[in-house]
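Query form — protein Winged helix-turn-helix transcriptional regulator

QUESTION: What is the three-dimensional structure of this chain?
INPUT:
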Amino acid sequence: MEVQPDAYVWMQVVEEIRSRIAAAQYRRRQPIPAERRLAEELGVAVGTVRKAVAHLRDAGELYTLPQKGTFVSPPEGE
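ANSWER: The structure tokens for Winged helix-turn-helix transcriptional regulator are given below.
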């Protein structure tokens, strides 16, 4: 991911995760990569990924199961 200087990096990570969901790289009810792995992939700090994931979780786009991981939420009504 190429970091844009005029936007918060964590918001760029949010958009990257959303684009991967839209492209079906991350599928509904399937786990996304661990925060450390995602941080390495994107070339950002783990805290940046953690903030992006928390934002997406608060928005209902992801959910986390303790000891299991973070998953893409199913569509509304399912």
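ADDITIONAL NOTE: The two ends are 32 Å apart (CA to CA).
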